[in-house]
Amino acid sequence: SDIGSQKDRVVTEEEWLQKWEMGNIGFHKEQGHPLLQKYLDVLLNGRSGLRIFFPLCGKAVEMKWLADLGHSIVGVEVSEQAVKEFFSDHSLPYCEEPVAEISGAKMFQSTSGNISLYCCSIYDLSSSIIGKFDGVWDRGALVAVNPCDRQRYASLMTSLVEKNSSYLLVTVSYDSNKHKGPPFYVPESEIKSLFG
């Protein structure tokens, strides 16, 4: 459980963009994640028409799946390539517009209006820009965030959720001395201190 070897590791935005450009996206799952299917009832909690947030969404296929179930999806991703591939992979028409509050940011929205993906740094977002959410599917975001930014990330995420929201978080467990990350190892004790 010693994360000493990872605590100072930093992956830059440029490195993430390069992963997308090079097709080095082993973290992308072509099929929906089995844990989302398994715990869908926990996320939805008997509710329909939820606003669900996908932090660091990439081109996650679960966004379309949940939108098709009647939910409103909002994601954020630094790679414009990933966002455009999401829409083309699913043959979804979309429009693109600048985000007035964030210099250089763009928002890509399906013409049906139920999927909105922001192309910018997650740290540029706030509830005043994207609103609040009933649910979060964090399958690879917390574990991709640089260890030095975890507190900042957790504070942002807690500011984006409604009082009785559901937050599904997937982490990975391994010997952090044998792998430098990402994905980073986040001990359960740290998850509890970050999210309470």
Automatic annotation (TrEMBL):
Cellular component terms (Gene Ontology): cytoplasm
Cited Gene3D superfamilies: Vaccinia Virus protein VP39 (3.40.50.150)
Keywords: Cytoplasm, Methyltransferase, S-adenosyl-L-methionine, Transferase
Annotated binding of S-adenosyl-L-methionine, by residue: 16-27, 56, 77, 121-122, 139
GO molecular function, one term: thiopurine S-methyltransferase activity
GO BP annotation list: methylation
Predominant location: cytoplasm
Catalytic activity reported: S-adenosyl-L-methionine + a thiopurine = S-adenosyl-L-homocysteine + a thiopurine S-methylether
Compartment list: Cytoplasm
EC number, as in UniProt: 2.1.1.67
Organism superkingdom: Eukaryota
Keyword Transit peptide: no
Stated family: Belongs to the class I-like SAM-binding methyltransferase superfamily. TPMT family.
Protein name: thiopurine S-methyltransferase
Organism: Toxostoma redivivum
